[in-house]
């Protein structure tokens, strides 16, 4: 498949791109600074600015079969990037006729009553931005979406391949595990139209995703 990854210089995106390439896909890696992305036979860097219009963005994603939104401003521009940037990419996907859309979100972002939980209160503004992006995707598009909501991201050299879903409180998530989950849902039709909370755990990814 031809796949567009928005926010391609981010930590999760870099791991995701390697997973997708290893699975035989061609990745169009969208970033504000495409020079930071190595060009290979399976990776095409694309200059990509989420402040552009949906019409402009649609021209950049037209040749692809699926889109991942993994971009984030790290708190610097939550409204323009994390919230409205995601919405504009969804609109661009519909303009371009791309049906599959996978959104990297944040645990319990669609549940405002959880935003004061331990470990979440300090990122409330981030979850507010993610709430609007998630809700737009669910309520205002006809896209075949999957929303992945991990808790706190942590560095790790390799993936364990073991997770838990439908979590009841925020827990750590290794970046390689999150990347593997994002890649694994791509063609799993049982994940279409689903919001999946996750954390590191003890269940193999394939088994966990079969049960969502």
UniProtKB/TrEMBL annotation:
<dbReference type="Pfam" id="PF13460">
    <property type="entry name" value="NAD_binding_10"/>
</dbReference>
<dbReference type="InterPro" id="IPR016040">
    <property type="entry name" value="NAD(P)-bd_dom"/>
</dbReference>
<dbReference type="InterPro" id="IPR036291">
    <property type="entry name" value="NAD(P)-bd_dom_sf"/>
</dbReference>
<protein>
    <submittedName>
        <fullName>NAD-dependent epimerase/dehydratase family protein</fullName>
    </submittedName>
</protein>
<feature type="domain" description="NAD(P)-binding">
    <location>
        <begin position="7"/>
        <end position="187"/>
    </location>
</feature>
